[in-house]
Each structure stands twice: as C-alpha cells, then as structure tokens.
Design brief:
The complex is a heterodimer of chains A (161) and B (327). By secondary structure, chain A is an alpha+beta fold. Chain A folds into 2 domains: 77 residues, Roll (Ubiquitin-like (UB roll)); 72 residues, Orthogonal Bundle (DNA polymerase, domain 1), CATH 1.10.150. Chain A contains 5 helices and 7 strands, in the order ββαβββααααββ. In chain A, strand 6 and strand 7 form a beta hairpin. In chain A, helix 2 packs across helix 5 and helix 3 crosses helix 4. Chain A starts with a strand and ends with a strand. By secondary structure, chain B is an alpha+beta fold. In chain B, the strands form 3 sheets. A 5-stranded antiparallel β-sheet of chain B has the order 4-5-8-6-7. Chain B has a 4-stranded antiparallel β-sheet with strand order 9-10-11-12, sandwiched between helices. In chain B, strand 11 and strand 12 form a beta hairpin. Chain B is globular and about 60 Å long. Classes of the chains: A alpha+beta (161), B alpha+beta (327). The interface between A and B is medium-sized, with 34 and 31 residues.
C-alpha cells in the first residue's frame, strides 16, 4: 500500500493515523500527533535524538522506522514518562545531576537511559556505555548524564527515596 | 525529508513474500530492520518502487539447535536477540562479540542478521545526501560510468563494512536463499562478489532466509578496529578460527573484513601458522603474506599502506589472543 491507516498506541493511548509510505514513525509522532518531545536530528541513525521505546521498553530510532511497518505497535515517548504529574525517576535525576545543557538531545538521551534502566535497574559502567553509544550529546559530554543514570535507582516516583 | 514514495508490502508468511517477488517488477527492495535500507532511501541511494518488509515472517525468526548440533539462525532475527541468545553466548562468544560490534544498541534493537549480511557497500562519495552527490553528478553506483572515489576505476570499489560476515565465514556458516523457484544453500563466503554495485549473489526474486552454523569445538577470535570506541563503521575486522590449543593448530581459517569489497580469506597466512605454530615466528611469517593476499587496495577511507599495516596488526593481535585462550 502507498497510503493507509495504521493503529499506533502512543504512551498508552490508541490512535488511528492516516499515513503514506513516505512517513516514518518520527513524522507520525511530531507531524500527525503533535508530540514534539521526540526530536528530529540527523534522520540517518547516527545521532539518536529521535529515540523512543518500543513495547518491550527497548530504545529504537523513530527516524529509521517506516510508519506502515509499525501498524499495531506500541511506543513510549518522552511525553509518556511523567505519570500523574510526577516525573519519572530518570527525569528527576537528570534535573538533580545537571545532565541537561541546551536540551535538544535530552528526550533522546532520556529514552535511551530509560531503556538501559528497563533492562537493568542498577546498571554498571558497561551497561550505561552500551546504552548511550547510539545517542550523541554535544554539550554535556555524557559525564553528568551517566551520573544521573547511575543514581536513577535512588528515586521513587520522582522523589529521592 | 520524507522517504521516496513506494508501495509497502508486509507479508505474513514466506510463501506470501516469495509470491510477491515472483510477480514484482524490478525495483523491489527487501526491508529488515530498516537501519540500512531506510537510511539509503533517505539519501536517495535507494528509490524502490516496492518495499517488502520481512519483519513479520515467522519462518525467518529465532535461533534453533538442529539434531546434528548445528545452529540455525533465522535471517530476520534482530542482532539484539542474537547477542542475548543463551546458546550462542555459550558456544560462540566471539560470534556474539561480532554481532555486538554492529553499530549501537539502538540500531541492533532494529537491525536483523540478514540485513547485516546484505548491508550495502559504502564509499565516501555515495555515503552522502543526494544534494551533496548532485553537485558532482552520478557515479558507477548511482547510474553513470565514472568512479569519483578512485579516479579511473572501471568498477565500483565501495567497501563491505558489515561486521558479522567475517566471523560467520570463519565458522563455515552457510546461507539459504529461497525463491518461488526453490531453495539453494551456499557457503557464506560464496555469497559475496568483488563488485561494489552487485555485491552479493542474491537474485532479485530471492530472500535470504537463514544462516546455518555447523557444530565446532574450535577456538574463535573476532576483533574490530574503529576510529571511535562507541558506535562506528569499522576500519578493519578480523575473525580467526583454529583447532588445537595454545600455539598449536592444524587448521586455521582467517577472514578479514571492511578492507575490501568482499570479505577476504587469508589462506596462505593460515598455512604458514599451521607450519610454524602460533608463536612470534609464525606470526611474522603470516604477516609477510598480507601484501600478496590483499592485492591492490584502494585509498578509500584510508591509504592502502595503512590498510596493509592494519591487516598485519589485526592478524598479530588476533593470533596472540587465540594462543592465550584457556584450553
């Protein structure tokens, strides 16, 4: 098909969206659903700022995913981390450990970090490096980002435990 | 930039997919995880009329242990799932290392084994946006009869940068290609051609369905050299498989990747190492065969002299690692 409707569950809400074969998941999130948190960077899989989590909580690149390929799938974006007005532990950790500078890559970095935590709640140095290799932050140099990820386990429902 | 318009087809079975390929006009492109194909579509290096997604074909999924001890890897299995597979981790840690060497976790969460084996060749001219390439005009790979990377080259010399083929070739893996005409199985080493444009023997109506790894107790080592530590295409890779232990081996299979258009077997180097052992004399003798084994090299991405030196360094490091492996 060149055009069609896909069913996509974003942050728990089911959407039916008209797409064409020219659209990627990133185009659907930003252009059709107006979820502007997910950023458009290189669009070729190098920078990682378009990272979202799939149904298994893994980091995937929305810029390299044809929209028609994701019919029937579920995805979590940066907008879906906050629950009932409370930031997710990783979000509060990013604030407390100053892991943000210009902020453009932050949604992609946080969704990559969340994917690391989904796999290992107390990640080691290798887990963190592996999970962050595909996402680039030009400002922070990743040191504070890594510190925030290491300390995300100290937070419960957005507050330091 | 939006993707080029195409007809998107997602078959639910292999038979359904092969039927599409039987009737499809030229210009059909197989889609695995999309990390290579969608990138190439973005850069307008690929403008397919039809894209056939292989991700939902159950026959192409999973890792199975066959009755004779061989492993069957479905071609649409994601690299992340291969890296996590308990059987592969136990029996082939070096293969797992090669799968894990591919790009980043983000990419491996999408990319498939078949996609890595079919990864398109790259050169510094084509690996750019369309606007950038248009300033110079088309090349051999993009529709004209001139090479912009190596002036005067009569053939496309783009490199095969995939990380898993050298390791899989070293363990004598075979690939199965299916079409409506039937199935054929061939050694992975025969899958590749020395041609940057048509770099595999896959026919337009064929699908790579599975990779089979015969059982072995041999030692296996894989190394990858990159500019950056995180996520990068390789300057060079090497995979070496050897029987025996310590400095003794009666069979060695050495494969170099990323330096040439097709992965390269170093059979003479292997013979020298069998004759002289894996000690430093054997390594020196093996390294002395590199120039002839690699033949003429392009200056693509790095000078030819650097590539030869890199091949010797990889060979040396890999043999040292091999002979120090616990028996």
């Amino acid at each position: 098909m060149k055009k069609g409707f896909i069913t996509l569950t974003v942050n728990g809400d089911a959407h039916e969206v008209a797409v064409s074969s020219r659209h990627t998941l990133l185009d659907v999130l930003r252009g059709k659903l107006q979820l502007m948190g997910t950023k458009e960077g290189c669009t070729t899989g190098s920078c990682g700022v378009c990272t979202v989590n799939n149904a298994r909580g893994e980091a995937v690149l929305s810029c390299l995913t044809p929209a028609l390929e994701w019919d029937g799938q579920a995805v979590t974006t940066i907008e879906g981390l906050e629950k009932n007005g409370q930031l997710a532990p990783i979000q509060q950790a990013f604030i407390d450990y100053h892991a943000v500078q210009c902020g453009f890559c932050t949604p992609g970095v946080i969704m990559s970090a969340q994917a690391v935590l989904n796999l290992t709640p107390t990640p080691g140095e290798d887990d963190i490096n592996d999970g962050l290799a595909g996402v680039i932050c030009r400002c922070t140099g990743h040191i504070k980002v890594k510190e925030a990820i290491r300390h995300a386990g100290d937070y419960v429902a957005g507050r330091k435990a | 930039m939006l993707l080029p318009e195409h007809d998107f087809i997602k078959p639910r079975s292999l038979a359904e997919g092969l039927a599409v390929l039987r009737d499809a006009p030229p210009g059909v492109r197989l889609l695995g995880g999309g990390t290579d194909v969608v990138f190439n579509m973005r850069c307008r290096l690929m403008t397919p009329d039809t894209v056939l997604s292989l991700r939902d074909i159950p026959e192409l999924q999973g890792v199975d242990v066959l009755p004779d001890g061989s492993l069957r890897l479905g071609a649409a299995t994601r690299l992340t799932d291969l890296v996590a597979d308990p059987v592969l981790r136990e029996r082939y840690p070096a293969l797992v290392k090669a799968f894990r060497a591919v790009a980043s976790r983000h990419v491996r969460n999408m990319a498939t084994l078949g996609g890595n084996l079919c990864l398109d060749t790259r050169c510094w001219f084509t690996n750019q946006t369309k606007e950038w390439r248009d300033a110079k005009g088309p090349c051999l790979k993009t529709g004209k009869d001139v090479c912009h990377a190596i002036q005067g080259s009569p053939i496309c010399v783009a490199l095969n940068n995939a990380d898993s083929p050298p390791a899989l070739i070293a363990v004598d893996a075979t690939v199965t290609l299916a079409s409506h005409r039937g199935e054929r199985t061939l050694p992975l080493r025969d899958f590749y051609r020395e041609d940057g444009i048509r770099h595999t023997v896959l026919e337009p109506d064929e699908v790579l369905t599975e990779v089979t790894i015969p059982p072995t107790r041999d030692r296996l080592v894989f190394l990858k050299e990159t500019a950056r530590q995180g996520m990068d295409f390789s300057y060079g890779t090497i995979a070496i498989r050897a029987d025996g232990n310590g400095a003794r081996a009666t069979r060695l299979h050495i494969v170099l990747g990323s330096l040439t258009t097709a992965p390269r077997d170093l059979s003479t180097a292997g013979e020298r190492l069998v004759a002289l052992g894996l000690g430093d004399d054997g390594i020196d003798a093996a390294c002395a065969t590199i120039r002839d084994a690699l033949g003429p090299l392009t200056n693509l991405y790095s000078p030819a002299a650097y590539k030869r030196e890199l091949a010797r360094t990889l060979l040396r490091k890999a043999i040292v690692e091999l002979r120090e492996m616990p028996a």
